[in-house]
């Protein structure tokens, strides 16, 4: 069964009518949006539209079902963007789905991820109450930080209806440098050197094989040539560096943001740079990319998800399956080390005592 | 069992955990802990304990839980919202001795510290590696990371870099029930729900952080610090809007009004133009070529905003001098008036002008001077309401004026607190911001985590929670009906 509420009230009234619900936005992450046995679907695309946006405030408020492509289009008209750079824009991802999945993209390197930009939320809890947390200003310390709590909550704590974000001006000019390195180890050492340097990167991505760092630099056009020169000097003359600008650069990043890598599961793995070598030693060839100075891995896993589950456990890592393969039939999209703890159980119980949003 | 028997048993159990010199029960020993930086509130704890290890903290919390006695964790006691005010008759857990830097990994750019570690020391320790810890509340030379975390402290750089919660990656926490959990980790990314995000800023209501993993940033290569003097407060506010509209994203934008300038100048001789009605400080930071290009753009924007004087710091020393005046402004206001109340409401940046005009009107209406020092970049006001506690009625007038300013902030689309937290001071204003269903959801979370409401009982929620275990009589201000501790 699927219900597509078009008002918050309709949503609130619907909650008690089913034992188990799965909220869904654009369906761009099938492993998270395909109902399991007994789950009815709340199609949130009926609650869409930007509610408030004053470019001078750097704040945007929208209904949770608003497609990212609509938001990004509006922001771009004013030279602004979502600095956490959500993926799956063209696949129809929504703001609410992005928050619930807790997903950020390459540009998170510069100013932070989705948790760093969410300012406010409204959501409907497991008993149909409409709850507001946070606010609509860029600085706020009143009450519990429910907006952050919702990041990565996968709909387990409630159904998002409205979100407020801090937004920033997009750099006036950007250049992307693809730097080839001799080995993964060399790439990681170079990544450390760059991440600890005063150079400010909009992206600092690592492709493990062949080992490559992808740097995006942005700012005022007149300062870029000198800045690039200094970075190249820092890297040394022996590197092969490919330079992307203008439309080819935009196209390159648009493709990366879609994370479309063919067959297999697509998995998000939070990680640190120091864990990359050990993991890489055990991963088969395949598409993957480490974002934000080695803090976020998106990988394609061609085999059984149980094997990746074991592999991640052995490395002390956790993962979230987003899609691909038989993702929809997985027991749980969460794999690897189980980080659940008493604090989480109790907060979940408080917001959804009847487990209406349990998988 | 009688209350006094319970208390005696609690004290006996605590005495088994801590040696005498770190277990304070004498009136004279307790007195310094009766209030924090919000001195209008006072409460007498039954004991102050000074643990030196995480294990001791856990034991203390478990002991309090067993005896159902409320406790308050306290760092340096700099809370401006009464956040570390003891619960009357409860236990104060002083964490200043848990002040070690446990680990600093320059490559991964993280520092792991104990809760009593001083904010500024993190940056000191990171400096040899070209790194620093970004959140910079004015209290940073003395305030602790544990307190910063509990109240999600801000500072002057929040528009660009966020608040404390954006710089805390992980925490080991003892819950009010005595269980120990790990929230977050070392990565900038996580899998949700973001439990750590909920814990940070929960004002001590969900337990005590025992170890905190902080994110460090590379120190900017270059700063460009500009000081502009205006003959009207409104012009400074408009200048801020113009800077933002031009696409610049300065690290900090601060405004001080005439009264604040006078005070700061008297205190630290920062060399401010004292005749100014308003001073605007704008600071750009980043890679040198970028900052130099932005500086040109900034000076064009500022020129058009009609300042009568503009100064640019020529070196690190001049920069520090400009900031010294700003950071000293709060304590400096103490020279102008025996007492003051400081608020930290936020308004949308575009409403700054209206908010300031309204504050001026309220100031006249209530017959009290108000100095303004604020983080203009993020709309975070800091009206300092000057009063003399010895003059009958002035404190009450001050409190009323402060309340009206907070209501105005909410009315203009902002918030009652940008960085000091709700604590004791603003809890009665929570309903201005949140509907009953919102507050009830927060209370449900609180009770789920802390069923006996022991951890920092009485903060954040309006109307109070369960009553204190023992009554020692009210503070004179409370008896006078000036403050309430319900």
Automatic annotation (TrEMBL), chain A:
This is Putative FAD-linked oxidoreductase. It comes from the Bacteria. Residues 1-170 form the FAD-binding PCMH-type domain. It comes from Meiothermus granaticius NBRC 107808. Its EC number is 1.-.-.-. Keywords: Oxidoreductase. It is an enzyme of class 1 (oxidoreductase). InterPro entries: FAD-bd_PCMH, FAD-bd_PCMH-like_sf, FAD-bd_PCMH_sub2, Oxid_FAD_bind_N. GO terms for molecular function: FAD binding; oxidoreductase activity.
UniProtKB/TrEMBL annotation, chain B:
InterPro entries: FAD-bd_oxidored_4_C (IPR004113), FAD-bd_PCMH (IPR016166), FAD-bd_PCMH-like_sf (IPR036318), FAD-bd_PCMH_sub2 (IPR016169), FAD-linked_Oxase-like_C (IPR016164), FAD-linked_OxidoTrans_Type4 (IPR051914), Oxid_FAD_bind_N (IPR006094), Vanillyl_alc_oxidase_C-sub2 (IPR016171). Its EC number is 1.-.-.-. It comes from the Bacteria. Its cofactor is FAD. Transmembrane segments: none annotated. It is an enzyme of class 1 (oxidoreductase). The keyword DNA repair does not apply. Keywords: FAD, Flavoprotein, Oxidoreductase. Residues 41-219 form the FAD-binding PCMH-type domain. The keyword RNA-binding does not apply. One of its GO terms (molecular function) is oxidoreductase activity. Pfam families: FAD-oxidase_C, FAD_binding_4. This is Putative FAD-linked oxidoreductase. It comes from Meiothermus granaticius NBRC 107808.
